[in-house]
């Protein structure tokens, strides 16, 4: 999630400045209307103000600068009563394929709030951070929050073991070679795994790590060793490696990196992979056409193995194919395009997995202040669900595809120009070679 990244907040958020669609209801949204009539009525209602204030800021800013909100974080009160859903949840059994679509929701104020926030957007799966992403030391899970999380899952019919997908801390690098730092990383990682087990969560997604300039083999060896140790110290949680966009020393942008880590893991039942569609595309795994999707999936099957695939991060890409840039776009508006997501949503081997959006939802309010618009996720969930079984050659799909591509045209152009400029200056090569970035470079890139 961009908003929770320890790196600077991306300058770019999904905006519609100078975009006609900002001024009138979009045709895509209108097309979706029939799919979610109940949700559409609710959409007219602004999201409760609390939701906007409550989220993001708490996770994005150091606590020291946010004394009031720090206090709020301690509360474990549920907010069911004032969180009128923006969209009703779709019964997965009513879809032609069992696709569990959700988003990375906020757990600010207590892990139990992730349930409320998932219900709010009509999500059938969700990602969350189990603790602050900015700090190494965190208090244990509040027992009240834990019990509210468990009862919330049960009341709302979420199977935490199957469809909750926590995201690991960005501070943790399991490839760290410095002994003291490696211990610190391991302890934070293990602490998260313990939290998963306390909450009945089975899947834990994390970024494999960075070589920090060391050899790839040595870094991969250290990641696997840390995983083996963590598996012995816990009982059931599956550590899920996320594929990366592939710049610099980052491990995990190739299927081979993931394969090589898995090869060194002793207990293969405790390791898996989460494919982030934006990262895959940026790293050179094409998904745009049905043929490209098939080829990429075949390569994944051959190199990693489909049995390790456990989850998805569904994001379009603002950056072009193979650019190694990690810039999430709203579904259908980026260089991946809606056809890629149609392929994903109709792939039998992906059924039953948590598939979470990490798409931008920041918009400017009338005063130019950045606010989160959760309706974006509520709509994207319905959009993705609508693709299950949709005729990709039919009028409905073509109209949606065209509308969404038009909406993202300005942003795609802007990023493409940046990428070209950097390549002309040799900057693109620098990224690929893993040289240190200058401050101010690549400020838009996200880390999730
Ligand atoms: Zn991701
Ligand atoms: Zn991530």
UniProtKB/TrEMBL annotation:
Biased composition (Basic residues): 1-10, 421-438
GO-annotated molecular function: DNA binding; DNA-(apurinic or apyrimidinic site) endonuclease activity; lyase activity; phosphoric diester hydrolase activity; zinc ion binding
Cofactor(s) named in the record: Zn(2+)
Biological process (GO), any one: base-excision repair
Domain Xylose isomerase-like TIM barrel residue range list: 117-386
Keywords: DNA damage, DNA repair, Hydrolase, Lyase, Metal-binding, Zinc
Pfam family, one: AP_endonuc_2
Biased composition (Basic and acidic residues): 14-23, 405-420
SUPFAM superfamilies: Xylose isomerase-like
Entry keyword annotation includes Zinc: yes
Disordered, as annotated region: 1-28, 43-81, 405-448
GO CC terms of this entry: mitochondrion; nucleus
SMART domains assigned: AP2Ec
PANTHER family: APURINIC-APYRIMIDINIC ENDONUCLEASE, ENDONUCLEASE IV ENDODEOXYRIBONUCLEASE IV
Protein family according to the UniProt entry: Belongs to the AP endonuclease 2 family.
The name this protein goes by in its record: Apurinic-apyrimidinic endonuclease 1
Organism encoding this protein: Cordyceps fumosorosea (strain ARSEF 2679)
């Amino acid at each position: 999630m961009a908003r929770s990244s320890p790196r600077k907040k991306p300058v770019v958020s999904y905006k519609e400045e100078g975009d006609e669609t900002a001024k009138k209801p979009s045709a895509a949204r209108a097309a979706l209307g029939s799919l979610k009539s109940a949700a559409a009525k609710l959409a007219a209602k602004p999201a409760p103000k609390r939701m906007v204030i409550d989220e993001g800021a708490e996770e994005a800013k150091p606590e020291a600068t946010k004394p009031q909100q720090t206090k709020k974080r301690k509360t474990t009160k549920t907010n069911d009563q004032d969180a009128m859903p923006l969209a009703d949840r779709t019964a997965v059994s009513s879809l032609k394929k069992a696709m569990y679509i959700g988003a990375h929701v906020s757990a600010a104020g207590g892990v139990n709030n992730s349930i409320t926030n998932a219900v709010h957007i009509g999500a059938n799966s969700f990602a969350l951070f189990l603790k602050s992403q900015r700090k190494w030391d965190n208090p244990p899970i509040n027992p009240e929050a834990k019990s509210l999380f468990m009862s919330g899952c049960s009341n709302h019919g979420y199977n935490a073991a199957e469809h909750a997908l926590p995201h690991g801390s960005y501070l943790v690098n399991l490839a760290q070679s410095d002994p003291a730092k490696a211990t610190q990383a391991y302890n934070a990682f293990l602490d998260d795994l313990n939290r998963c087990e306390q909450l009945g969560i089975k899947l834990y997604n994390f970024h494999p790590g960075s070589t920090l300039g060391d050899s790839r083999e040595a870094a991969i060896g250290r990641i696997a060793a840390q995983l083996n140790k963590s598996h012995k110290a816990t009982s059931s949680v599956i550590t899920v490696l996320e594929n990366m966009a592939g710049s610099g020393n980052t491990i995990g942008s190739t299927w081979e990196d993931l394969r090589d880590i898995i090869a060194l893991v002793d207990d293969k039942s405790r390791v898996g992979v989460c494919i982030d569609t934006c990262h895959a595309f940026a790293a050179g795994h094409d998904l745009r056409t049905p043929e490209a999707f098939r080829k990429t999936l075949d390569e994944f099957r051959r190199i990693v193995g489909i049995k390790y695939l456990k989850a998805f991060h569904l994001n379009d890409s603002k950056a072009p194919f193979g650019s190694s840039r990690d810039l999430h776009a709203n579904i259908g508006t980026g260089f991946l395009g809606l056809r890629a997501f149609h392929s994903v949503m109709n792939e039998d081997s992906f059924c039953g997995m948590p598939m979470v959006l990490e798409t931008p939802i920041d918009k400017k309010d009338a005063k130019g202040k950045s606010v989160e618009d959760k309706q974006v996720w509520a709509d994207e969930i319905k959009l993705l669900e609508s693709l299950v079984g949709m005729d990709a050659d039919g009028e409905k799909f073509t109209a949606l595809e065209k509308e969404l591509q038009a909406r993202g045209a300005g942003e795609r152009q802007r990023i493409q120009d940046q990428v070209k400029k950097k390549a002309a200056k040799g900057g693109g090569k620098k990224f690929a070679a893993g040289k240190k970035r200058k401050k101010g470079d690549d400020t838009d890139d996200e880390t999730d």
